[in-house]
Amino acid sequence: MSSVEIHNVTKTFGKARALDDVNITFENGGFFALLGPSGSGKTTLLRTIAGFSFPDNGTIRIGERNVERVPVEKRDIGMMFQSYALFPNMTVADNVGFGLRVRKVEASEEKRRIAEALDLVQLGDKGGRMPHQLSGGQRQRVALARAIVTNPKVLLLDEPLSALDKTLRVDMQIELKRIQREIGITTIFVTHDQEEALTLSDRIGILRDGRIVQAGAPREVYDRPNSAFAADFLGEANWLPETSLDQLALPGPIAGHRFAVRPEALSLNVERPASGNALPARLDQRVFAGAMATCLVTVEGQPWKLIARDRDLPDLSSDAQVWVSWDSADTMAVPQEAA
Predict the structure, then answer these.
(1) Within the chain, which residue ranges are assigned CATH 2.40.50.100?
(2) CA–CA separation, 313 and 307 (whole Å)
(3) Distance, CA of 293 to CA of 308 (rounded, Å)
(4) Which CATH architecture fits 4-231?
(5) Over the range 192-226, which residues count as b (16 or more CB within 10 Å of their CB) and which as e?
(6) I need a labelling partner for 284 at 20 to 30 A (CA). Which of 108, 209, 231, 238 fits?
(7) What pLDDT is stored for residue 84 in this prediction?
(8) Helix axes 136-148, 107-120, angle to 10 degrees
(9) Cα 240 from chain centroid (whole Å)
(10) According to the 3-state scheme, what is the secondary structure of the chain?
(11) Nearest one of 42, 4, 27 to 193, comparing CA atoms
C-alpha cells in the first residue's frame, strides 16, 4: 500500500481549466472522498491519478515513484467504475481474475487469489455464475473484488454506489468500509453524495472550479468550514442575519466573519428559552419523515431549515410564531474573505 501525493497539478481541456494547481496528499491506508459539484474537477483528478489522463503540469507520486507520465496499466492501481464494466460473457470468477491473467499469474495462484477476493466480498459461492444472474449489489461486489484481486497499491472508486437504491447503498457503504479496513488499502473515491462522503471517509476534499477549497477530517470540515461554499456544499447552513449578530453569543469577532448554524443544531420553541442563542421566527411548513421531521421557518425574512425528532417538536400549525434556539457552541464562524 502507498500514499499518493499531488503537487501543482494542472489539467486543461481547450480553454477550460479542469484542475488548477492542485496540491493534496492521500495518506497511506486512508479512505479519502473527493466531493464537489458537477464540473468541479473531482473525476478529472481521479482519472489523472489513475493514468487515463496526463496532467499538463505538476507531479503525481504513488509511494516512492513519480507516475504522471506512466500509462495506466503500469501504475499498480485498482479501479472500480460507476457502471461496474463486467464482461457479460464471463463467469464471476473469470471477471474477477481478468487482471491476474493479463499479468500472467500462475493458474494455481490465480485460483487462490480469486477465491480470497470473492470470500472478502462475501460471494465465495457465486464464482460460477454469470453477471446477469446477480443482483445489482452483487455485481457491485464483483467489480470491487476484481479491483482488489491484483493487490494494487491504491484503490480508485468513481461513484461506486450511485447505481444502487437507497437501502442497498447504505448496506454497501458498511461493507465497503469493512473491506477497506480489512485490507488496509489507500482508497480515493469520487462521490456527489454528501452523506456518503461523511459516512465512509477518513478525510474529505471539497473541489470547486478545479481547486481543493478545503480538505480535512469529515467532522472538521463539517463543523469548521473555511468558506460559505464549503458550509453550504457539505450539509446545509442557516446564515445568521447581520442585524441580529449583536444580540447573540458568537464564537469570535464579528469583523471578517459570517456566522451560521446547522439545521440539526436548532430547536423549535413556543417561547424564548431562558439560555442559549434564540431568534424569533415564523413556522412555514413541517414535513414528517418518520422519526425525524423537517421544519421550514422564516427568520428575519430569511428561509431557515430545522431538523429534529418529530416527537420533540411542539404541535403547531403553519404561520405560528415561534423561537428557534441553539447552543452558542454550535455557531459556525466562517471567514468572510474566503466566502
Answers:
(1) 236-338
(2) 10
(3) 6
(4) 3-Layer(aba) Sandwich (3.40)
(5) ebbebbbbbbbbbbbbbebbbbbbbebeebbeebb
(6) 231
(7) 79
(8) 130
(9) 27
(10) CCCEEEEEEEEEECCEEEEEEEEEEECCCCEEEEECCCCCCHHHHHHHHHCCCCCCEEEEEECCEECCCCCHHHCCEEEECCCCCCCCCCCHHHHHCHHHHHCCCCHHHHHHHHHHHHHHCCCCCCCCCCHHHCCHHHHHHHHHHHHHCCCCCEEEEECCCCCCCHHHHHHHHHHHHHHHHHHCCEEEEEECCHHHHHHHCCEEEEEECCEEEEEECHHHHHHCCCCHHHHHHCCCCEECCHHHHHHCCCCCCCCCEEEEECHHHCEEECCCCCCCEEEEEEEEEEEEECCEEEEEEEECCEEEEEEEEHHHCCCCCCCCEEEEEECHHHCEEEEHHHC
(11) 42
Residues of the chain with CATH 3.40.50.300: 4-231
Single-letter residue type at 19: L
pTM of the model: 0.89
Q: What is the pLDDT of residues 80-116, one digit of tens each?
A: 987 778 999 999 999 999 999 999 999 999 999 999 9
Could you tell me which residues are beta bridge partners of residue 304? 297
Cell of 299: 427568520
Topology given in CATH for the domain delimited by 236-338: OB fold (Dihydrolipoamide Acetyltransferase, E2P) (2.40.50)
Dihedral over alpha carbons 45, 48, 54, 60 (to 10 degrees): 90
Residue 7's DSSP bridge partners are 59
Minimal CA–CA distance to 59: which of 74, 44, 48, 47? 48
Q: Tens digits of per-residue pLDDT, 185-228?
A: 999 999 988 889 998 999 999 999 999 999 999 999 999 999 99
CA 91 centroid distance within chain? 32
